[in-house]
Amino acid sequence: MKKTSILLTVMAAIFSMAAYGQAPGRPAITPEYTPVHDPVVAFCDGRYYMFSTGMGISVMSSDDMKNWSFEKQVLDPIPEWAVKAVPGYNGHTWAPDIIYHNGLWYLYYSCSTFASNGSCIGVATNKTLNPESPDFKWTDHGMIIQSVPNRDKWNAIDPNIIIDEEGTPWMAFGSFWDGLKITRLDESMLKLSDPQEWHPLWHRPELMSGKMDLKSEPGDGAVEAPFIFRHDGWYYLFASLDLCCRGENSNYKVAVARSKSVTGPYLDRDGKLATNGGGTIVAQSNDRYVGVGHCAVVTFDGKDYIFMHGYDKTRRYNSMLITRQIVWDKDGWPIINL
């Protein structure tokens, strides 16, 4: 993830293919081949809705989590505030997360460009996800948080929202630089409760070469895409380690750590702190997929599912949806069979 024009061009091309499939037009979708990048899934009015990276936030829907069809993008038109705030942002919007709270759906999203922490997280709301409903209308509420190159050692992308056992909303986020963080949202869910309140979640200091100025470069501590899931009295923090968006050269993988507190500290199965390079690997490359990562964990009908993308060797390394049910072992750790 170095700042060279050649790498950025290659990454942009791969990422575009991963998000949209083969040009021209949208790719064919089958139960076995669903093109997607950074998926998250919700259920509304008898139907599943999947939000992912794409122009204006890509949306698909399904009645069985197998057969998906495209819906209209969320952000249309593209928010002018984001275009002004993030140089180079053209509407290709990354890594959404969605949550239902107090009668509203809240959709959080990332506006950024490759290898830069000139980034913003925004939020839009809707009363329903069903486009056939008379109440269906996305309302964009603008920016929640911004990171600025040469000022901040963190990156405002990859939001994930968790409401703790006391009903307090928190936003986890981050990518590269000094890792993942969590901060409290106020009751409106539209802004930070206290911009000075930060809690570290995950950091990989063992990979930091020391050769880069972390105020302006991403460094080598590749961790991103936090997702916190409550299970049996624990908070499980899932994160993606290493590199995505390189097609067959991607080495993304999903790791997990857990804590009794939403703000941590999070420890892996061996007792190592996530803030000190810990993490138990639960999903990674196999005979069919490489670069498995950027997950969301959701419960439907009493079953826990993980949604991820992986670069599919049978589809010229385009990014495809991977859906698996999670099994929990006797010690309370997730098992994901790819």
Describe what you observe in this structure.
With 338 residues, the chain is mainly β. Helices cover 7% and strands 40% of the residues. The chain has 2 helices and 22 strands. It has helices spanning 5-20, 80-85, and strands spanning 40-44, 47-52, 54-55, 58-62, 69-71, 92-101, 104-111, 119-126, 139-147, 160-163, 169-173, 180-184, 199-202, 223-231, 234-241, 253-259, 280-283, 289-300, 303-312, 318-325, 327-328, 334-335.
Q: What global shape is seen?
A: globular
Strand content: 35-45%
Going across the major beta sheet, what is the strand order?
Answer: 3-6-7-8-9
Mean pLDDT: 90
Total beta strands: 22
The biggest beta sheet reads:
5 strands, antiparallel
Question: How are the SSEs ordered, and which strands pair?
Answer:
Elements: H1 5-20, E1 40-44, E2 47-52, E3 54-55, E4 58-62, E5 69-71, H2 80-85, E6 92-101, E7 104-111, E8 119-126, E9 139-147, E10 160-163, E11 169-173, E12 180-184, E13 199-202, E14 223-231, E15 234-241, E16 253-259, E17 280-283, E18 289-300, E19 303-312, E20 318-325, E21 327-328, E22 334-335
Defining key terms:
338 residues; mainly beta; five-stranded antiparallel sheet; four-stranded antiparallel sheet; globular; disordered N terminus
Overview in brief:
This protein is mostly beta strands. The chain contains 2 helices and 22 strands. The strands form 6 sheets. A 5-stranded antiparallel β-sheet has the order 3-6-7-8-9.
